[in-house]
Design brief:
The protein is of the alpha/beta class. It folds into 2 domains: 172 residues, 3-Layer(aba) Sandwich (Rossmann fold); 94 residues, Pantoate-beta-alanine ligase, C-terminal domain (Pantoate--beta-alanine Ligase, Chain: A,domain 2), CATH 3.30.1300.10. Helix content is 38%, strand content 20%. β5, α7 and β6 form a beta-alpha-beta unit. α6 packs across α7 and α9 packs antiparallel against α10. The radius of gyration is 19 Å and the shape is globular. The structure holds adenosine monophosphate. Adenosine monophosphate binds next to α2 and β5.
Length: 280
């Protein structure tokens, strides 16, 4: 596995892979890798001879009050895990090398990024789509792998690829969970053992919503109320939203269509912001 820091070196390495006829699979990450990330790398490896993992804590997707400086960085360990999962290349540019000085160009999706996290993290998705567009331009992957845990991000990337004709297939991977049901996240390491236990109210609320739909409930407000009631059993959670939405448009719905409707939750536990969702 090669660890590459600059765009010209990456382009050169990828040219060789392409000349050898290898399909290129790409997994963009911010590092601090866990089994959720590695599941994406493994799937990419099953489907592509050459897998590129980017590790880049992207400053433009963090708000001024957010945890950019504190975001956990575990680069050496990440590289060991990428190699074990079958990556051919880790691309880890510095901010100064990747963003041009006074960079002034943005890529912004304006439909699915409205509402949900878009309301609470202004500018976040603009930073995500911009950096992913930049990464797609340098990696030029055949396929790119994203987790369903970040459902609104996945929706924004799919729209961007569609609208701007990026020649890349977007592959979604199911959310990988801890043994206690909490969605894996790099930010879980901020949680105290007590908070980690309290966080189980989130998957429990998702499960309550899923069970109601399995038992025939189709009214979104009823399902939302059930999920909210379960969240309220954990007073440590400070809820941002709990919404029943169309899984593609991310817009709230009134009637549930099984397989096409999702429930999405965001909350704070202490200083840590957690998100999760599931299909109903
Ligand atoms: P991040 O490093 O948080 O930017 O995440 C990089 C990629 O890994 C994104 O596509 C995430 O959706 C995905 N990801 C993060 N956590 C999980 C998880 N628990 N299960 C599946 N994919 C995940």
């Amino acid at each position: 596995m090669q660890v590459i820091k600059t765009v010209p070196a990456l382009r050169q390495a990828l040219q060789q892979a392409r000349q050898a006829g290898q399909a290129v699979g790409f997994v963009p990450t911010m590092g601090c890798l866990h089994a959720g990330h590695l599941a994406l790398v493994q799937q990419a490896r099953q489907e592509n001879a050459c897998v590129v993992v980017s590790i880049f804590v992207n400053p433009t997707q963090f708000g001024p009050q957010e945890d950019f400086a504190k975001y956990p960085r575990t680069f050496e360990d990440d590289c060991v895990q990428c190699q074990a999962a079958g990556a051919a290349i880790v691309f880890a540019p510095t901010t100064e090398d990747f963003y041009a000085p006074q960079s002034s160009t943005w890529v912004e999706e304006t439909f699915v990024t409205q509402g949900l996290c878009g309301t609470f993290r202004p500018g976040h998705f603009r930073g995500v789509t911009t950096v992913v567009a930049m990464l797609f331009n340098v990696v030029q992957p055949d396929a790119a792998y994203f987790g369903r845990k970040d459902l609104q991000q996945l929706g924004a990337i799919k729209r961007m690829v569609r609208d701007l004709h990026f020649p890349v297939k977007i592959v979604a991977h199911d959310t990988v969970r801890e043994a206690n049901g909490v969605a894996m996240s790099s930010r879980n390491r901020y949680l105290s053992p007590t908070e980690f236990q309290q966080a189980t109210a989130i998957p429990a609320a998702l499960q309550a919503a899923q069970q109601a739909v399995q038992h025939g409930e189709r009214e979104a407000t009823k399902v939302q109320q059930l999920a909210l009631a379960r969240l309220q059993q954990e007073p440590a959670l400070q809820l941002q939203y709990c919404e029943v939405i169309d899984a593609d448009t991310l817009r709230p719905v009134t009637t549930i269509t099984p397989g096409h409707t999702a429930v999405a939750i965001a909350c704070y536990l202490g200083k840590t912001r957690l998100i999760d969702n599931c299909l109903l």
